[in-house]
Amino acid sequence: MKISADFTVVPDDFAKAAAPEYRVDGVPAISFPFYIDEVAPDARYLHWAFTDPDSIPVCGFEWIHWIVANLPIDALMFDFNDSHALAIPPDFSRQMPGMIPEAVQGRNSSASHFVGRSSDASLIMRYNGPQPPDKDHDYCLHVWATKQPLPGLNQGFWLNEMFHRLREAEETPDQGVMYVTGRA
């Protein structure tokens, strides 16, 4: 599997310099678009985590910006004649609950009691764009594809729960990783 985007630096609309109308409680809330190519032919579900390993020295843990599980591949619009068969559109995080209710989004780091920001689902269970406070950070988008949905994951699941379900899967999930930079 290959994960890509039309950028290597997260554009302003999806990150620290996002306009006020693209924010929730001051946090960038419009998710960026990306592509998923060369998915295993028997895969039926997508799952992903967008994280910031460079946040560890800043806050003491890897910041979770967005997690998704059990997104049916068939629910995505795609064109077999397109070089990017599967495209995740901009603002998918906010649109997905209405478009594909069987897919679930987990809690990001804004839900942490160490951060204590909010209990608002539109902030803690959706995309939170990069806002590195100290320097440019490198971010990781890790995508997995499986034949079956991951059991027991509901809206607001935690990242470790998804990792457990991926490990327990009867198959070895197809996977791909993309790294992008967020400007300070």
Which terms summarize this structure?
single chain; 184 residues; alpha+beta; Phosphatidylethanolamine-binding Protein; five-stranded antiparallel sheet; three-stranded antiparallel sheet; 4 helices; 10 strands; 14% helix
Could you write a compact summary of the structure shown?
With 184 residues, the chain is of the alpha+beta class. It has helices at 56-59, 92-99, 121-124, 159-168, and strands at 2-4, 23-24, 27-28, 34-37, 45-52, 63-72, 86-88, 104-105, 137-146, 174-182.
Question: What topology does this entry show?
Answer:
Layout: E1 2-4, E2 23-24, E3 27-28, E4 34-37, E5 45-52, H1 56-59, E6 63-72, E7 86-88, H2 92-99, E8 104-105, H3 121-124, E9 137-146, H4 159-168, E10 174-182
Antiparallel strand pairs: 1-4, 2-3, 4-7, 5-6, 5-9, 6-8, 9-10
Describe the structure.
- This protein has helices spanning 56-59, 92-99, 121-124, 159-168, and strands at 2-4, 23-24, 27-28, 34-37, 45-52, 63-72, 86-88, 104-105, 137-146, 174-182.
- The chain has 184 residues and is α+β, with helices and mostly antiparallel strands.
- The strands form three sheets. Strands 8-6-5-9-10 form a five-stranded antiparallel beta sheet, with no helix packed on it.
- The longest helix has 10 residues, at 159-168.
Mean pLDDT score, rounded?
Answer: 93
* Terminal Cα span: 30 Å
CATH topology, which one?
Answer: Phosphatidylethanolamine-binding Protein
Rg (C-alpha, Å): 16 Å
| CATH H-level superfamily | PEBP-like
The helix tally amounts to: 4
Output the helix-strand order.
EEEEEHEEHEHEHE
Fraction of residues in helix? 10-25%
Apparent shape: globular
CATH class: Alpha Beta
Contiguous uncertain segments of 5+ residues: none
Oligomer: single chain
Strand content: 25-35%
Please state the structural category. alpha+beta
Q: Main sheet?
A: 5 strands, antiparallel
How would you write the strand order of the largest sheet?
A: 8-6-5-9-10
InterPro entries: PEBP, PEBP-like_sf, YbhB_YbcL/LppC-like
Organism: Bifidobacterium erythrocebi
Family: Belongs to the UPF0098 family.
Pfam family, one: PBP
